[in-house]
Every structure is written in structure tokens, then in C-alpha cells.
Design goal:
The protein is 30% helix and 12% strand. The protein is α/β, with parallel strands linked by helices. The chain has 2 domains: 133 residues, Rhodanese-like domain (Oxidized Rhodanese, domain 1, 3-Layer(aba) Sandwich); 117 residues, Rhodanese-like domain (Oxidized Rhodanese, domain 1).
């Protein structure tokens, strides 16, 4: 059995997770058994991630579909992946057999950005402490020839009672007020999208006036997260005196932005917030200003 003191709260490497799964039954009800969430997703083909999961996944992993399980598409004007209501997401957690004390590990095939970091922050926003992202994801797991399976688990259903910390979830009006107060807004999209040179996903190119660009790939080195000390130095330079709790992150739809929240937490910079609708939510009202170029 995994020691009760084991607790992963930001990142875990493939070797450590592999050893933990080898020591514990993957569908046991013990509170120290890690529950693994496969969050592989492709924006180009929303069915691809689940199809890949059906072929092979980490033993015992449940599948989280970004559109179905990690977003609420009934909400209008809230971006391409609207933040779900707590009662809907906790119902999903209950179906996966997750309770507030369980160790959860999420992974994907997109460096944590699609959509393992989204799983991580959804749980953290509920107050769930023991949740981490598999550093290197599916790519590193398979490169190490660690065990996989195709069988889909049938975990016993449970209940999960919690609500989101609304102070960490900002809508468009709150982001506008944040910027007017001089707060920092970090955009995790690629630099060419931020500058408005290309826009493969949304109908308007550019960025929120006053936002600062840091592409999420800047958190990585060779497909793994940079060391905590290096991330801390880079973010502190970018924050330029702003406390981490005065930082709001965004991207195209509030998914990749969670990569920054994870990287900051791993660096010891906590309490940053998410612009849930992000760029796609911002441009849902054409009267909102749009900037292009570096500034």
C-alpha cells in the first residue's frame, strides 16, 4: 500500500506513479490508492482522445472528455469551453469514484495543456489538495514502457460535496475591473496568436488590451516542466512586483491557461486566478476592445 504520507499536489514523475500503481490495486477503495484521469484531447478531432484511451491507457485510468466532463456548453458567451458548475463537475467526480481525500493524478498527450492541467485546477478550485499532473504525460509513460491496459474500469460510485472557490474564477467584467486596478493578466497562447498574426480557432485575432504574453510552452523543457526554482525565477521576473494572488491567467478558452496556474503553484507561487472565458469569451461581445502586436 502506498504510504499514507504520500501526497502529490502539483507534479509527479512517471516512475513514482508507476511504483505507486504497482503497490496498490488500481480500483481499490483505499484512500491512499491513486486514481488516474486520462484527459487526452484534440481540438481538431474531439473524439480522438477517447478513442486513444479505448485502445490503451494507464491501468485503472478513468477518461475525462474536455467537452463533456470538464466544460458546460449550455452556457452562452462564456468561451469555447465554459467553466462547469460545481454540482455538475462533482457529479462527474462521484461517477469516477473520487472523494475529497483521494490522491488524483491527471495526464494527457499535450504536455499537460490538453487537458490534464484543467483537471488539476478544477479539483484545486474545489479545495482538493491531493491532485497532480503526470510530468511528461502519456508520452513519457509509454517511452518508459510502463504498463498500459485497454480495459475500462468500473469504479464504485460515490458522492463529492464541495463548491468552487469563486475568488479564483473571474468573468469578463471582473477581468476588466482587474486591469483597471493595474492587475496583471497573463495570456498563455502562442506569441503569433497573441499578436493577432494568426487565429486558427476563434473568429477574431488579437488579445485583451493590457494583457502580457507568456506562451505555456515556456513552462517546459523537453516536454517536461522546468525545475521549480527556474519557473519561480521566470515568473517573478514577469510578475515584476505583483503578488501571485494579483495575477489572472487566460488563453483561448480557459484550458491551456491552467498550465500557468500549475507551473506557478509548482514554483511556490499560489492563488493566481483564471479568466474562465478567456479570449473566446472576451470576443463574444464585439464591443470589447481588441489589441494586436506586442502590446
Amino acid at each position: 500500500m502506498m504510504p499514507a504520507t504520500k501526497s502529490w499536489t502539483t507534479l509527479v514523475d512517471a516512475g513514482s506513479l508507476g511504483r505507486a500503481l504497482a503497490e496498490t490495486p488500481t480500483e481499490a477503495g483505499d484512500a491512499d490508492t491513486p486514481i488516474v484521469i486520462d484527459a487526452r484531447f484534440s481540438l481538431a478531432d474531439p473524439a480522438a482522445g477517447e478513442a486513444a484511451y479505448a485502445q490503451a491507457h494507464i491501468p485503472g485510468a478513468r477518461y475525462a472528455h474536455l467537452d463533456r466532463d470538464l466544460a458546460d456548453h449550455s452556457k452562452q458567451g462564456a468561451g469555447r469551453h465554459p467553466w462547469p458548475d460545481a454540482w455538475d463537475f462533482t457529479a462527474v467526480l462521484g461517477r469516477w469514484g473520487i472523494t475529497p481525500k483521494r490522491q488524483v493524478v491527471a495526464y494527457d498527450a499535450g504536455d499537460g495543456a490538453l487537458a490534464a492541467a484543467r483537471v488539476w485546477f478544477l479539483l484545486r478550485a474545489l479545495g482538493h489538495e491531493r491532485v497532480a499532473v503526470l510530468d511528461g504525460g502519456w508520452t513519457d509513460w509509454t517511452a518508459r514502457a510502463l504498463p498500459v491496459q485497454s480495459r475500462v474500469p468500473a469504479p464504485p460510485a460515490t458522492t463529492y460535496g464541495a463548491g468552487f472557490d469563486q475568488h479564483r474564477l473571474l468573468d469578463t467584467a471582473q477581468v476588466q475591473a482587474h486591469l483597471q486596478r493595474g492587475g496583471l493578466l497573463l495570456d498563455a497562447r502562442a506569441a503569433e496568436r497573441f499578436r493577432g498574426e494568426v487565429e486558427p480557432l476563434d473568429r477574431v485575432a488579437g488579445h485583451v488590451p493590457g494583457a502580457v504574453n507568456r506562451p505555456y510552452v515556456d513552462n517546459l523543457d523537453g516536454g517536461r516542466f522546468k525545475p521549480a526554482e527556474r519557473l519561480a525565477a521566470e515568473f517573478l521576473e514577469l510578475l515584476d512586483g505583483h503578488p501571485s494572488g494579483d495575477v489572472v491567467v487566460m488563453c483561448g478558452s480557459g484550458v491551456t491557461a491552467c498550465h500557468h496556474l500549475l507551473a506557478m503553484a509548482h514554483a511556490g507561487l499560489h492563488d493566481a486566478k483564471l479568466f474562465t472565458g478567456s479570449w473566446s469569451g472576451w470576443i463574444s461581445d464585439r464591443s470589447r476592445p481588441v489589441a494586436a502586436g506586442e502590446d
